[in-house]
Design brief:
heterodimer, A: mainly alpha, globular, B: alpha/beta, Rossmann fold, 2 domains, 8-stranded mixed beta sheet
């Protein structure tokens, strides 16, 4: 897989699921958000919408995490696959809401409802990512 | 040696068929948007090294058309998108899933068209300019004025609208493209559907000819709307474009209650034509002249259709060739050429004759899908304006009589027709 985002998406999704299965909700929650972000950025990157350089620190308007990216992602899509790769209008990461800085929160803050919503959001992004791999858009 | 597109698939199929990987459950070959091939297997084998070694053989066989390592169904979130895809077919004993940019609509199963519904006919031409819209004018006039049927004509030739302006002096408040953009944001209410259809003055009796145009009158934003029509609506209630077309037709029938629906399909191998001809449960009339390229095109289409044997079996019974623009001289020879070329084109859709209950016909069988219904070309129809009555009823009968009667017989039970 050439894209760093694709590789990161795979790693974070897999690790998030492993942690979730062990009820280690705090870090699972954090990784679900990052996994979803990487899935969507991998598609934007592969479609040439997002610049290929410096994937570790993308420039605006893509230098945002999933809590904002989800809402802006559909608007960035273009071309014949835009509907295939679009996300639902309702942002599952609004539950909480998910924030990258939440990794510093106390364990008690990660309720089952919150983490489940974020897992669902990451799953939606991952399904789209899988389709992009099957389509050959992401290699 | 460079491995080309066609060779890559043949090599991959041979590898899967003759020496498949073991202990992986079901295997589907996925050909992606670029033609690259990847194996998707149901489960990870105990011996993963053996699967990797097998995949290297796939890479070697497919060259530039190799997509990457196998995907494992049990590790996927959406394995059904592969293993239960409607676009997954058996090719040479191997399951193949095509992930094309377009073209899949031709081989997909019929849509869940709502019952009860009136008889539907789609008029389609592989090539344009063969008198399809003119035939719709003649047929709708016959159905309404001679047979007392309420006719709904839907102009689905969105890239090249025509039949609506032939049947209507002015278009209406909305067009089909308006319905699509409104539907995408949840605004496609019954009021919009009611105002989509406009009554044509071509109907002179008790029964209307309602026309659903592509565009509204004087639309200055048609291109912007057209650019948003072919949209699969995303999200949890995902509605693919084809389902939206079926919804539109169902809704038009529910609101306007026509006795017959005539659909003017766009020409060519576009997905929109695939939906109109294969997926709306319509009797489809295939227009063509005697030109060799027309029938070699139809042959390519039928080769593709035949890939999905289930869809092909359902669709082939609802096809009928129309020999268009038969010249004023040497008519018999022209018709014979069309018949022979259509027969050859239909070969992929016909069973071998020795199969029990074979769907198979002699070249001269008059009830066969390939056997053409004639439309005779006449100088008058080059400038026919159905709304100005510049062609006589006798001239219409001479050119279109066989077609309107033959097509009506195929579509309707005419015994109860009002004459």
């Amino acid at each position: 897989m050439n894209s760093a985002y694709g590789s990161a998406a795979t790693r974070m999704w897999t690790d998030a699921e492993t942690l979730y299965a062990s009820t280690r909700l705090g870090t699972a929650d954090h990784l679900y958000g990052l996994a979803a972000e990487c899935c969507l950025k991998a598609i934007l990157h592969a479609d040439g919408i997002m610049p290929a350089d410096a994937p570790s620190k993308p420039q605006k308007p893509f230098g945002v995490h999933i809590d904002r990216l989800w809402g802006e992602y559909n608007a960035a899509l273009a071309g014949p696959h835009s509907a295939t790769y679009a996300v639902a209008q309702l942002n599952p990461f609004n539950v909480g809401p998910w924030k990258a800085d939440d990794r510093y929160l106390h364990d008690s803050k990660f309720s089952a409802t919150r983490v489940s919503a974020h897992q669902n959001g990451a799953k939606q992004a991952w399904v789209i990512f899988e389709q992009a791999v099957l389509n050959g858009t992401i290699q | 040696m460079t491995v080309r597109f066609d060779d890559a698939l043949l090599a991959a199929i041979a590898l899967v068929r003759d020496s498949p990987p073991t202990d992986v459950g079901e295997l589907v070959l996925v050909r992606d948007l670029f033609g690259r091939l990847r194996a998707v297997v149901e489960k990870e084998p105990t011996n993963t090294d053996a699967l990797s070694a097998w995949n290297e053989r796939l890479q070697s066989a497919t060259g530039s058309y190799f997509a990457g390592p196998p995907m494992i169904g049990t590790q996927m979130v959406a394995p059904d998108a592969v293993f239960k895809s409607p676009d997954c077919f058996d090719v040479g004993g191997v399951k193949l899933l095509e992930r094309g940019v377009m073209g899949a609509e031709w081989t997909r199963a019929e849509l869940p068209n709502r019952e009860p519904k009136p008889p539907r006919a789609t008029l389609y031409g592989l090539k344009g300019g063969v008198g399809r819209s003119t035939a719709i004018c003649a047929w709708s006039r016959h159905l309404a004025n001679n047979l007392g049927r309420k006719v709904l004509v839907i102009d689905l030739d969105l890239e090249s609208p025509g039949v609506s302006s032939t049947l209507l002096p002015t278009l209406g408040d909305f067009g089909i493209v308006d319905w699509f953009v409104e539907d995408a944001v949840g605004n496609a209410d019954d009021e919009l559907v009611r105002r989509l259809a406009v009554s044509s003055p071509l109907a002179t009796g008790q029964k209307e000819i309602l026309v659903v145009p592509c565009a509204k009158e004087g639309d200055r934003d048609y291109i912007s709307k057209l650019a948003r029509c072919y949209l699969d609506l995303p999200g949890p209630t995902r509605r693919p474009f084809a389902d939206r077309i079926a919804d539109l037709v169902d809704k038009l029938e529910e609101v306007h209650k026509p006795d017959v629906v005539l659909i003017d399909s766009r020409a060519g191998l576009h997905d929109l034509a695939g939906i109109a001809t294969s997926r709306l449960d319509a009797m489809t009339f295939l227009f063509g002249t005697s030109a060799r390229q027309t029938w070699s095109g139809y042959r390519m289409l039928f080769e593709g259709l035949a890939r999905n044997t289930t869809t092909a079996a359902a669709v082939r019974e609802k096809l009928r060739v129309v020999a268009a623009q038969i010249p004023e001289t040497h008519r018999e020879e022209y018709l014979e050429r069309v018949t022979l070329r259509a027969y050859d084109a239909f070969e992929p859709l016909y069973d071998e004759s020795d199969v029990p209950d074979a769907f198979n016909f002699d070249v001269g069988a008059e009830d066969a899908p390939h056997y053409p219904i004639p439309i005779f070309w006449s100088r008058e129809f080059q400038e026919w304006d159905p709304l100005s009555d510049n062609v006589t009823a006798a001239q219409i009968e001479a050119s279109f009589g066989d077609f309107v009667n033959g097509a009506t017989d195929l579509l309707l039970d005419t015994k109860d027709a009002v004459s």
